[in-house]
Amino acid sequence: xxxxIQTEPLTAAAFAPFGEVLEATGTPEKLxxxxxxxxxxxxxxxxxxxxxxxxxxxxxxPCSFPYDIELVERHPEGSQAFLxxxxxxxxxxxxxxxxxxxxxxxxxxxxxxNLHRGVWHGVLTPLAAPGLFGVVDRIGTTPNLExxxxxxxxxxxxxxLSPASAD
Length: 167
What we know:
This protein is mainly beta. It contains 1 helix and 14 strands; from the N terminus they run E-H-E-E-E-E-E-E-E-E-E-E-E-E-E. The chain has one helix spanning 12-15; strands at residues 3-9, 19-22, 30-32, 37-39, 52-60, 67-74, 80-84, 90-95, 103-106, 112-115, 120-121, 125-126, 131-139, 146-157.
């Protein structure tokens, strides 16, 4: 038996139950640097329990479609933001629970995400090399990772969406 899900474009409205989409859309809230830079202010709610925020750099191996989701993970003690350091699309898999059907979002190459605390999500899935990301998450002394391995994986199909068509 094959369980499949199709990609959908990453939009703020569709992703809202899971976190925030980080992108420069609309009118900047502030102009800074003598009017030469627009600041799109406070785009994510960072949530780190009784720890501190840290910035790390991740380098992930690129994947392609069809892509099998064998596990999801969550961070019960803090949110986690992924900021691509290249303008390459990446796949974002999220689910409301380990028994629910996951959703697969395709970024447009100029979007990052912030996952709310406790959201089940797939592993980092860049679609092109280098899969380089700045990651803002919780740095603390207590555990902040839970994993769930699916008995039967989910297969993500590209559903005809290319990264360029996800704009």
